[in-house]
Task: structure prediction
Amino acid sequence: MSVDPKQIKVVVIAGGVGGARMALGFLNRPEVDMTVVVNVGDDDWFHGLRVCPDLDTVLYTLAGVVNPKHGWGVDGDTTRSLSVLQKLEAPDTWMTLGDADLGLHIYRSTALRAGGSLTEVMSLVAQKFGVKATLLPVTDEECPTLIKTTSGLLRFQEWFVRDRGQPAVKAVVTDSAKHAHVTAGVQSAIREADVIVIAPSNPFLSIGPMLSVGNFRALLSECSAKRVAVSPLIGGKAVKGPLVKLLQDLEEPVSSEAIAARYEGLIDAFVIDADEEPEDDWRAGVPYQIVQMPTLMSDADKSRELATRICSLAEGL
Ligand code: FO1
Result:
């Protein structure tokens, strides 16, 4: 946490790829002290190792080593260890864990087994990867998001990766998150924040599970920060991931307005893409500003442009 008064404290609430791209926009700015609070509902054990997909996507993206095609994993990684695991018919080899990625999982799992917290491990890892931002899991406790589907209850990665998000979703189950605790680090980051940005991550699969953790929702609703959420939909389409199919499965409206409604009480402004045409009555009846700007972060420059616009928007709130 910086003590430089002229820096603004920005907290980005992030899920996977969308969250990482949003955080990238605020990185390496002298006027910004950034903390990224990350979802841990996708985390799981593979081959006895703790894999934290959203934390690792943010880490690799901010460290400039992420595989740009996927938005996760290490660029140029190999899968020789995975091929040995496949030869040995180990379970869960559908989860593509690269050799470099495994280095992180080995290190983190050893540290956790030695009694370290996920917060402590990720702080050291972010520093060693040269990331000039604070990376915080929303909780240090395991609270897996489970997906209730027409073919039973699945672990998140079973549904998302093994089954390619195909089984129709009946519910996103975040019950374990309710018993987890928001870490002290996250509590103080939210309380000290000048600006909080809810990234354009999936509101059901990433942001929702975070809001279910302990008193996280209350923290956001009571803090003094200027709070801005960015819609993950552009023209009714998701930029990445299974959002639209998920909304249809859950019989939720596929609209930015419906997504904004899930954040009501937690935001001062909701950002939608410049090309959207919001209904007039939406603008009238809500307790937050609806602001339009280009939201597609197709490269690092676009992420920075969006971050700059959000900072200016926050100043005026
Ligand atoms: N996503 C896939 O679609 N296929 C994979 O094999 C896969 C492996 C993987 C390994 C490590 C990691 O950190 C992420 C990985 N992801 C993979 C992405 C991951 O499932 C998603 O990024 C999040 O869980 C959802 O945001």
